[in-house]
Amino acid sequence: MDQPLNSRISIITVTYNSSVIVENLLRSVPSGVPVVLVDNASRDAEATRALAAEHGARFLANSENLGFGRACNQGAEQVGTEFLFFLNPDAELFPDTLEHLLAAADSHPEASAFNTRIVKGDGSLFFKRRSKLIPKSLWLGRSAAKQDGEVPVLNGGALLARRAAFEQVGGFDPAIFLFHEDDDLSLRLKANCGPLRYVYDAQVRHLLGHSTERSSRTAALKAWYMGQSRVYAARKHDQPFGFSRAFAEAGLQLVSPLNLISARKRAKAWYYFRAILSSRGKQSADRQPPWV
Predict the structure, then answer these.
(1) CB 3.0 to 4.6 Å from 97: which of 17, 93, 111, 226, for a disulfide?
(2) Which domain holds residue 249?
(3) Does 151 share its domain with 252?
(4) Predicted local confidence at residue 261, as pLDDT
(5) Residue 215: what pLDDT?
(6) Is residue 46 over pLDDT 70?
(7) What whole-number distance in Å separates Cα of residue 278 and Cα of residue 272?
(8) If we measure between CA atoms, which residue out of 14, 23, 131 comes closest to residue 84?
(9) Under a CB-based contact definition with an 8 Å cutoff, are residues 182 and 229 in contact?
(10) Beta strand 125-126 with 35-40: parallel, antiparallel or unpaired?
(11) Which CATH number is 9's domain given?
């Protein structure tokens, strides 16, 4: 790896009311590495713009929320490096994260995309070893998180893709507003461009679930798009009984006793159920929730 980092890799982050937490990410990026922040019509867009200017990042502001995948695609169009590193705004790099990622990419030229090790705030690991879009026979055991290796799907919170592979498959599916877009991209990259790999030595600290504010309304919004994406992605990847399985799962969540003690859980369960019900016969996952 003779070329400097800033000529090989760019970081792309999508923000949505994320100004409180994105500064830690910006501070952790090595000097000179290109960073693009794509803001999806946040209330705090000007605060995020100021942070981007302070840390030398490029800032794009959307006048409406276009969804995670579309915003990632926008960011990718702004850079010309060999690798695209998609990071959630509540992530933070370690000093050697990018070096380990690029070393792994150079050692495995057959691989199309990579995940880092994701360290949660309490020091434990988050590892995506399964997906609703693949059969259980492909799910990995928990021990897979402790070593390098091929994986069936990638987590979009810290995803490195070869630009050529990302462009070959058309990037993130714009029909998916939020959730399962990383699973969908992973399966298309694996099928068309090469295997997916997990890089244990490349670490990212991640405050999971804190990329946006925590409220009943936010929980409902996320649940709505999660339900729509679940049905759309299942159909796209030819899962048998995709709608009926999702509907049954949503029904069980709706009657969970936990909903009695948490307004956020009630909102999440109710709008997840409504979203799946509304997705019957739909061919996309970007329909707006009923209160918009």
Answers:
(1) 93
(2) 216-278
(3) no
(4) 87
(5) 75
(6) yes
(7) 10
(8) 14
(9) no
(10) unpaired
(11) 3.90.550.10
